[in-house]
Specification:
The complex is a heterodimer of chains A (461) and B (112). With 461 residues, chain A is mainly alpha-helical. Chain A has one domain. Chain A is built from 19 helices and 5 strands. In chain A, strand 4 and strand 5 form a beta hairpin. Helices cover 61% and strands 4% of the residues of chain B. Chain B has 3 helices and 2 strands, in the order αββαα. Chains A and B meet through strand 2, helix 2, helix 15 and helix 18 of A and helix 1, strand 2, helix 2 and helix 3 of B.
Amino acid sequence: MAVRLVLFAAVAAPLIALLSEPAIAHAAALRGSTSSVEVPTWLFLTTGGGTVGASFLLASFVTDRAFMRSVHDWGFTLPAPGQLVSLGGRLVGVVVLAATVGIGYFGPETGYRNLAILVVWVGWWGGYVASTYLLGNTWSTLNPFRTVALLLPSLDRPYPDRLGAWPSVAGLLALIWIEVVSPLADDPRLLATTIVAYTAVTVAGSVVYGTDSWFGRVDPISRVFALFGRFAPLKRTDDGLSLRLPGGALTDRSAVSGRAETVFVVAVLYVTTFDGFVGTGLWARLITAVVEIGVPPLVGYLGAYLAGFGLFVAAFRWAIGLARRFGRTYITQAALAERFAPSLVAIAAGYHIAHNLGFILGLAPSLAVVAASPLSPPQQPPVLTTLPGWIVGLELAFVLVGHFIAVWIAHAAAYELLAGRLEAIKSQYGITLVMIAYTIISLWIVTTPTVTPPFLGGGGV
Amino acid sequence: MATKGVDDGESRGSSDTNHTQATAEPRPETHIPGDETPQQCPYCGFELPADDQYQLHLGLNHYERLDDADRQAFRNAYQQEEAALTRFRIIALGGLVLLYFGFLLVYAVLAV
């Protein structure tokens, strides 16, 4: 193990040095505030990584299985909202979808003045997604695509089991690919067309396989929200709303099942990272260099996108391989991966809010003002340009809290699977190293100044 | 390697005591490397490396059904594990101290 750690450090150190901008970075406030302690970027990043490592060491002191279970089982039940609220939710979902498409086509052409752009990127992808992991997953009710599909008859063809969750892995990668390389965040017409195309695909899919099969197994968006919903404290059950600790439901045996679902969890984590990564100066320099040697820009983007995904999957598998060896168990890698993968959902949630919080707060006034008069919005909708410095601190805190919960979930999973307590701790070496590396990468992406990705022709809102 | 593991686990699962296992909780799939002889739990059919892991599994999952010899073996394995855990905790504490003071020192030098 010691040799391995030294090797890891040898690999990690130049990587961190590479990620570090030559200039001195601000530790606490990178977007304008002046009252911050200045530390070198590498130190700031390794501090984040070190904190995650420390949380693993702290968790290793907890070896009482009964105590762990009592933590995860803590919770109580609240009365559920009635049918009327669900019906209202469905109606709201459909109305928002119709308004988004309509105003996307017939509203102003400028992105930041068009309600469709603001609703999708600020309201939905920013704010609503955050609500699925901070409160609970309401998408199965609000989902306007599902409501539309429910109105149509279904052929109810059996969904081929061998496909499992693979179509949703491909679907998620494809959706984020389109989002990254097309001016979807700028061009309301294109956005409206994409939504119409997405509606057509999902409705056709539900008509063939039935709404439950389609939205339960194929639709990538529903699957992302279902995963985030497992992190959330509130969950709808037959008895009402059950309240649990954040991440509690991720320790359930059934949280993730099958190889495809494990890869899907890695994909959720990866796509948010790639989305942030293309906005960094490092990527701008890399892709410029690649294009200069004659590679078409889109091929460069696609190559990096797929290679990065392969790297994430490989790192996760490497960690699970270590878990199997250090855990001294005969449990298959696939079965171990199923129980360790849910911990990554906590990281993805923490990273999502860190990546989007400033963006949501900055553009929330725009959303409100444009929503008030969507067809004739002001020339310059109001934005909060200078957010207080502590917002960035809060973003960093979310990245770290996500990792702490992830360390705990992996710890709990190891204790449920393995007989020996020491083996259960050692089985987390790999996943902890991967999490430390990921903390460093995501802290760097969140704090590095954002630049427009070159060669794509769109800047985003 | 992992694909092979799943296949082996499934074929094994269908041929052994998978369907008659006593515990309600489904046990994870296993894959045994060719050169190792696993110890199979007589109560639920779960395969574990021989020695302490096996004793610990018996004691943690089927304590009520064990005879006195097995209970004693479980207690011994658990106590030995306790000693190993204590050693690990000391190292972990050392790691925490190193991390804390290491960063404290670096910050003191670089971030005044």
